[in-house]
Amino acid sequence: MNTAATSTDRFSTSAGRMVVAAVVMLVCVVLLMLVSTTGMQGLLDLAQRTEARVPTFLVRISLIIAALTAAFFFITSHSYYKRNKVAIAPWMFLSVGLVFFSIYVIVPIFQSISYSFTRWDGLYDFNGVWTGEWVGLHNYKLLLDDPNFYTSLWNNLLWLLLFMLAVPIGLFIALFLNQTVAGIRIYKSLFFFPFVISQVVVGLIFTWAYNPEFGLLSEIWSWFFCETKTNIMGNLTRVCSPEPPSILGDETMATYGIIAAGLWPQIAYCMILYLTGLNNISSDQIEAGRLDGAKGWKMLRHVILPQLKPATFIAIVVTVIGALRSFDMIATMTQGGPYGSSNVLAYYMYDQAVGEGVGRYGYGSAIATVLFLIMLVYISYFLWRMYVDEMEAK
Predict the structure, then answer these.
(1) Dihedral over alpha carbons 117, 118, 124, 126 (to 10 degrees)
(2) Against a cut of 0.85, is the pTM above it?
């Protein structure tokens, strides 16, 4: 009887803790709403002091943490949670991440889609009232007649096709580095180095390398097509025939030059994925393949590549997403030029909203919606393939 009573008490609802937690949570929510509407500057009578923003931020964070803590105690004090702790606890940990993901990802996606049906300059009036105008599908009709949109769409397709070269190149580099020889770790570090560098830094490096006057490409060009002569002033000058190409200044070459720059770190990333996969390959299958006479290409095709399928899947997914959302390299190297020839949808969206086309938030949102739908098709396909593979594995 005592054991049964103890077990019942252990799973019973702690009414006192629930009441206290509910009161604290309610007070935190009310204060948070009060701070969000009136501002902490008004509450502290510090409206003229700039540093009042700091306590406002700290108070909001403190109230959010206190509310989440109170919600935690409120849930864990209920008998249902105590009886189903194993099933509920993972969702409690996930809930915080899901809330922030919804606020900062899901909600902005739907906001952007809704703005795509409006004409808005991104500003509010003095009373905080939205100044946009509902225009329906007008922005999408403008897209159909916009040559810059089709240029950006074509460049995105080029990025997608050429960026896929990172997967096989990364595989072959990983196969080369997957050796047990002296100094191989140094070579691995050198190939891994581009992945560590920021995309902005990579863009600057290649911008300097492409410079037709003092860049690395210009120096290599001078080895074959240039010679040093003395001009009429008696100074040494370099004469080239033909002149070094200006890759980033040529409408037909700029996009290919940026893609080449973007491939450098992407190949390093794919190489890392394949090196990880090669470390997990079954040595028994390798030995069995050798006993059956498999070597070289046959060994790679029939023994190694099937075991690298998970790594290949991840490499393709990441490469496709990286190609579709390319922005950093273009913003650093050409800003969409020359004459918009190197634009992609991500940069064209930014340019229309806050760049040269500043004030066209509705039009920029329409471009963002098109890009989102394209990415949604690819992501949905990859998720479906992942689900099918998991079902087949079971």
Answers:
(1) -130
(2) no
